[in-house]
Amino acid sequence: MPRRIDHYLQSLVHEDKFEFYEVVRDFADAEVAPHVLKWERDHVLLPESVIAQMGEIGLFGLPIKEEYGGQGGDMTDLVLMGLALGYHSHSAAITPGAAISLGAKPLQLCGTEEQKKEHLPDLAAGKRMFVFGLSEPGRGSDAANPEVTAKKKGNAWVIQGEKCWSTNARWASHVIVHALTDPDGPNGRRSTCFIVPMDAKGVFYQEMSGKKVWEQSSTGQIMFDAVEVPESAVLGEVNDGFKVMVTTLNGGRLFIGALALSSLAFALDKTRRYAEERIQFDDQPIGRFQRVQDVIIDMDVALERNLTWLMHCSKRFDENKLDREQAAKVKMDSSRVASELLPLAMEVCGGVACLDEFGLIRHLNDLFVTRVGEGSNFALKDLIVRPLRRD
Fold first, then answer.
1. What is the CATH T-level fold of the domain 243-389, as seen in this structure?
2. Mean pLDDT across the stretch 78-93?
3. pLDDT digits over 333-388, tens only?
4. Which of 31, 136, 215, 374 is catalytic?
5. Residue 374 annotated as catalytic
6. How many CB atoms lie within 10 A of CB 69?
7. Is the pLDDT of residue 215 over 70?
8. How far is it, in rounded angstroms, from Cα 226 to Cα 211?
């Protein structure tokens, strides 16, 4: 039974982009799908051999300009990658996804030419990986006012504090640290971003334990104990870290929306296939029942609607025309509708849906992250409502 998502994407993107999607989809079918259950049961992170293969087919250099060794792709390509990899595993998708949208992207958008030449070629080749140090133990949705500080010391900066929920921390070569640099400055002009090597003196990393979502993705705590970095480590302008953060998260929210829809696409295919194969009551498939059909139809409608919306927003991002509210809306709604429909899909499938080998329980767990990642849906509503309150 062909994937329903493929049917919609073929009409939503150009032929060359759909061909790229097919390449990543086939890679995921061959290198992720057959192994993801064993990874889960063995409680291991995504193997470095798989990450290396992703680098070999150019996924880490996807949106990086060709002059820096990348593929010269755009946000639409990144979203398509998320849809293709996330269908089987959010963990597999977020590894290159975060490395690009939260690591390489802020460097591309805000870095100096010297910083780009120093880092982008190795990032594109998968030889380096940047992690974005944003979340903190005492700062969740209030990311604009970090507790991590950076204080000027001669021609250097000294960074102190702790970041958490840092995706890809295990494999990162550098961390982009969002730190408070002017506590008395105006709102939005208090922080600065710094590029810090993970092997710098005073940097300590620890993998966060007990996580039951995105289990094959590295999620770490990164501590900074009087870490000294030069002026050249500043990413963007001093006290302009909020701008770097906002620019970064806009694209990241589209990718998170893609992950939510990849789960919905998987659930739709799994449920409609099961509904035709499960024989009950007079030796007929349960797919003939209207209640079962209602769930499948609702998933199909939601997938087509939100895919169309997501691709439109991706195009707007590539044209530098996407408003913050638009990115927040599509991320919020995609994660919400997928989270609401997936339990109904499991109910249609019955007890078998609780088994890890069936796949739906993995997506049910992982969808939680799409509701809180790149800004929780509750916090994003505050952002979304602002234009509705203006005179």
1. Butyryl-CoA Dehydrogenase, subunit A; domain 3 (1.20.140)
2. 98
3. 999 999 999 999 999 999 999 999 999 999 999 999 999 998 899 999 998 999 89
4. 374
5. yes
6. 16
7. yes
8. 29
Q: Domain spans of the chain? A: 4-128, 131-240, 243-389
- Whether the predicted pLDDT of 277 surpasses 80: yes
pLDDT digits (tens, 9 = 90+) for 302-327: 999 999 999 999 999 999 899 999 99
Q: Which pLDDT value is given to residue 239?
A: 95
Please provide the CATH number assigned to the domain covering 131-240.
Answer: 2.40.110.10
* Pick from 24-28, 182-186, 299-303, 334-338: least confident: 182-186
Domain 4-128 bears CATH identifier 2.40.30.110? no
For the segment 200-206, the average pLDDT, to the nearest whole number, is 97
Q: What is the DSSP letter of 168?
A: T
- Region 171-176: mean pLDDT is 97
Token duo for residue 119: 């880092």
Geometric angle at alpha carbon 15, from 12 and 20, rounded to 5°: 100
